[in-house]
Design brief:
The chain contains 5 helices and 5 strands, in the order H-E-E-E-E-H-H-E-H-H. It has 123 residues and is an alpha+beta fold. It is globular and about 35 Å long.
Amino acid sequence: MVDATTRFFEELDRRGFEPLLAKSSGTLRFDLHEGAQTTHWLLQIDRGNLQVRQEDREADTVVGSAPRLFDELVTGQENAIAALLRGDMTVAGDLRLLLQVERLLPGPADSQCPRHPFRREMH
């Protein structure tokens, strides 16, 4: 069984291009910490062209969270900005990149916002 985080990143990689990120370029590494184990997801953005790998490489922005929290982010059960403000998620580097990618995360299930392309796939 594939978790929501894996589905999210696999879908981004399959998509290849995301119009919402057409003016964005940079790399984000998501470090999902659970005990002594860390899973890394590297998202490279080049003017909307996306490439995803599971690598621990240097990045412009490094986001740290628990795997469970990230699953909740990509399923719309949790909000990235709220998690960041509460200290449940950390960001080092260029915060603007995270704010741009945050637009790809789904809103709550009852959200009517059309900018959330993953809402249907994640449920």
